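[step 3/7] fold_predict: job queued, chain A
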Amino acid sequence: MVIGCRSARALLGVVLLLAACSGRDARRTVASSAASHGRDAGTTLVVFNAGSLARPLRAALDSFAAPRGITIEQENAGSLETARKLTDLHKIPDIVALADYEVFPELLMPGQLTWYVQFARNRMVIAYTDKSRFANEITSDNWWRILQRPGVQVGRSDPNLDPNGYRTLLTMQLAARYYKRPQLYERLLAAAPPRNVRPKEVDLVGLVQAGELDYIWSYESVAQGANLKFVTLPEQIDMSTPADSASYAQATTRVQGKSVGDTIVVHGQPIVYGVSIPTHAPHRALAEQFLAWMLSRDGQRVLREAKLDALEHPVLVGTGAPAAITAVTAAAAVSSGAPSRATLSRAAPSQAAPSRTAPSQPSKTTPASER
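[step 4/7] structure written:
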């Protein structure tokens, strides 16, 4: 059969198109197969993490996975909600990383895992934008007055789902003691009403950026990662300084425990993050490789570039940790001459924090509600 030139060109175009589509479909099939059968092939890494770890952990996961052809499945939620995925929903990831290491012994040990590593730290801040009411007035000295002003919208996260939520309540209590104003806790709580509460602190970022909220209770790393302005709080209340641990511990609150109706008491303490591998992780060998890399100097560098203050000397707690994890934490301690259970110090964060500028001073006339 003879085909004219125009018909031949058309047929050739169809053939090339079909070939291209076939290639794309093949790639999709391979990718789908890797995702579907990764639990058997060891090419998928499933990670459950706290919302404030979403950005820095993704950076670490991508850096680790890209040269190895690994598929990443990442779920972000409040740390308490993340823990309940394992205990209540029986969903088991390869890695679980939480914003409060105490959640491991309180909710996950020994049933889900037997060890964890303290690997990063943070501090509480008040984040805002140029559009926030009184943005040109707020300082580290008057923040608690500004938040109480009429019309100011303040957001916080749910204390039953997210450590930032209960740390917000603890910080409010510490502020009342620090400023010697017994009613300040109730007033700050009223300034952030239930309608402004979201499941996790990163859910508040978009609201403050859109101008729906003026200020949000957040972490320094989250504010830096989202390019928000933020007010640094006194060390005596921002839960960043080990030297103030005894003072922080005077603040307490209750949150939902392992089951409905059960509660646990949370005490104020320096903010330290934890990470572990569940006992029945589906891709345990791959999880061990990733975590050992993340705790190494290379992994720490990636976390710091993503604004998370990774501990120079990660601390291993518990028993039964893989040899690779034991080795990397021990090596960090030996190289620094630090004890195996390292003590955190309030050194300047490894990533430079934005410099504090002196905003214009507030009016000398102070509303009664702020006194």
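[step 5/7] annotate
The CA atoms of residues 71 and 86 lie 21 Å apart.
The first helix runs from residue 5 to 41.
exit 0
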